[in-house]
Amino acid sequence: MTKYKIVYVKEKIGNGFIGMNWYAAKELHIKFPYSKHTILIWKDFDKKRMRRTIQHEKVEIELMRRGMKYDRAHAVSNILEDYSRVHIVGP
Fold first, then answer.
1. For residue 36, what are the domain limits?
2. Count of the separate structural domains present in the chain
3. What global pTM score does this model have?
């Protein structure tokens, strides 16, 4: 699996996103002056949620790299994130 650089930002990204990656930003027309291997994370929430959001972004990247559009990749990532919250990491 690809290694990603995590960049923590002080403000939400674009129109209020708490996480963002190059592929999603490109499709959503959000300025993203970082490499394809960088994930932006808003740092103003708890560590468990940050971990889930990072994992969400990684899944989204992998799906979009393989040709899936943002809306579907985001939906799949949300399902996996919810499963993780309930069954693995906790609230």
1. 5-89
2. 1
3. 0.87
**More confident of the two residues 81 and 88:** 81
Q: What is the pLDDT of residue 48?
A: 83
91: pLDDT strictly greater than 70: no
Q: Which residue is it, tokens 């027309």?
A: 29
Give the C-alpha separation, 21 to 19, whole Å.
7
pLDDT at 8: 96
Q: Which residues of 23-54 are buried (b: 16+ CB within 10 A; e: fewer)?
A: bbbeebeeebeeeeebbbbbeeeeeebbebbe
Q: Are β-strands 19-21 and 38-42 bridged in parallel, bridged antiparallel, or unpaired?
A: antiparallel
Measured in residues, the chain has a length of: 91
Q: Coil, strand or helix: which one is 17? A: strand
